[in-house]
Amino acid sequence: MKCEACGQLATVHQTTLVEGQKRELHLCRPCAEERRLIQTNNELNLPAILQHVIGQHLGPEMDELARQRCPICGIRFMEFRAQGRLGCSNDYECFRIGLDSLLYRIHRSTRHTGKVPRQGVPTVVFEVALLRQRLRAAVEAEEYHEAARLRDLLRQREAGHESE
Amino acid sequence: MNLNNLTHTSGEWLRGSGPESDIVISSRIRLARNLAAFPFTNRASAFQKAEIEELLRDRIAKLDLSPNLGYVKMAGLSLLDRQLLVERQLISRELATAEGPRGVALGAQETLSVMVNEEDHLRLQVMRSGLTLDTAWSEINHIDDLLEARVSYAFSDEFGYLTACPTNVGTGMRASVMLHLPALEHSKHIDNVFRALQKLSLAVRGLYGEGSRASGHFYQISNQVTLGKSESQILSEIQDVVPQIIKYEREARQTWLSENRQGLQDKISRAYGTLFSATMMTSEETMELLSYVRLGVNLSLVEDLSIPTINELFIHTQPAHLQKLVGEPLDGEARNAARARYLRSRLRESGASPN
Ligand SMILES: [Zn+2]
Ligand SMILES: [Zn+2]
């Protein structure tokens, strides 16, 4: 793949959001350094990377992403950005666009190639389990508004799962 | 489980045995795992954390291991006992100081520990003496398999084991070796080693992990990348580089000996003499002096002390261990006096005599 700026071999790949559309960006190392997409030393400073990646590459769309909320654990992307910790396993899916470039920056990869649990993991089923947990907690806490929302979400997911 | 016993024993990793143990103190592997059905620890309510702890405690107790692991709840431990486990490298500082239901399951000989409700629901750890990453990996991989059969891990085909912090996602594995590098530090070549390691995406830290200084000339080298590389790839990258560092350290020791034998001998004798006779001793100074004595033993310049004894003194002179051994809380000056007393008596007991 060629660098979009100078035509040499591209080694830095970033996913960015442009007007709500996912866009791939491919650059060679010097061009990427020039655009400050990667730092010259390999120091890993997560908050700084987060600020950098999110601040620079998502631009106007940052607000939209920052406000986005995980329907399962309720964390907002901007909270993750501030704390550096995700709220639940579903966040990898729902913040995918923000996380992709972050993961690439940290690991120079976005794809797992290691150990796989022997008994394959149907993630959808666990999302449902997680929703049920939240629902039970909401009912216990008498948060009926939240409970109704979760019940709808749960119905949707379960219906979707059966039709697969 | 009686934690008081810990002060009279030492963990397998302090035994000073295993391959390359003159330079490689220990090898350690940690795996981060989460349960799919719960939010990550930082987002879980106290009620959910209690549920997670109960569930995991039960599953861990049912693992087919002999002897079984003993589970310790953090809530039931004094601050001193928690600190003891941190000094012992059996739990992280985060687990010791966090809030809510959490704890640790400990194996015999202290090679295995399983933290519950740390940053991730599960943090498995295996630690062994010497350069033994392969043994550590087969042990921890086996425990992980056993657990996986009893709980549902948060895992995705694309991102691997899902963790609270994206820096651990993928394999969730952090492999590290702890090295004793006094000669490389003395020759200042250590900076070159660090730069080379950084280019390989390997991290270097002090004895007690993140942010800690390299006191006692101990350095921990670990992988930074957890996504996009397999466990065996990550382990071989470390295993490829460690023998080179060992070689550099040995060469630096020989150069030191040939260029300034008298100076080195003097440094070691003074360190030994001070440990034997001082009446006040800070933790920092103790680490530094023990480090030179350890070097002296490995170069046969000190003959009446064994490596396991020195390794043990490194740990027993840490604040919590010392207070446990003395049997009372000590602060500042009293602690430094007790440390010096302890060192004097232990060195005499082991038949040492500074020349
Ligand atoms: Zn270019
Ligand atoms: Zn979430």
Short description:
The complex is a heterodimer of chains A (164) and B (355). By secondary structure, chain A is mainly alpha-helical.
Task: Describe the 3D structure.
Chain A has 164 residues and is mostly helical. Chain A has 8 helices and 2 strands. Chain A is 52% helix and 9% strand. In chain A, a hairpin with a 2-residue loop joins strand 1 and strand 2. The longest helix of chain B is centred in the C-terminal third of the chain and has 47 residues, at 231-277. Chain B is globular, with a radius of gyration of 21 Å. Chain B has helices at 46-61, 79-87, 93-97, 133-148, 182-186, 190-199, 231-277, 283-298, 307-316, 319-326, 332-349; strands at 24-33, 70-73, 103-106, 112-116, 122-129, 155-156, 160-161, 173-180, 202-205, 218-223. In chain B, the strands form 2 sheets. Chain B has an 8-stranded antiparallel sheet with strand order 2-3-4-5-1-8-10-9, with helices on one face. A two-stranded antiparallel ribbon of chain B has the order 6-7. The N and C termini of chain B lie far apart (42 Å). The model of chain B has no long low-confidence stretch (mean pLDDT 90). Classes of the chains: A mainly alpha (164), B alpha+beta (355). Chain A binds chain B through residues 41-42, 44, 46, 72-75, 83-89, 92-93, 99, 102-103, 106-119, 121, 123, 126, 129-130, 133, 137, and chain B through 34, 36-40, 42-43, 45, 47-48, 119, 141, 144-145, 148-149, 152-162, 164-167, 169-171, 173, 198-199, 201, 203, 224-231, 233.
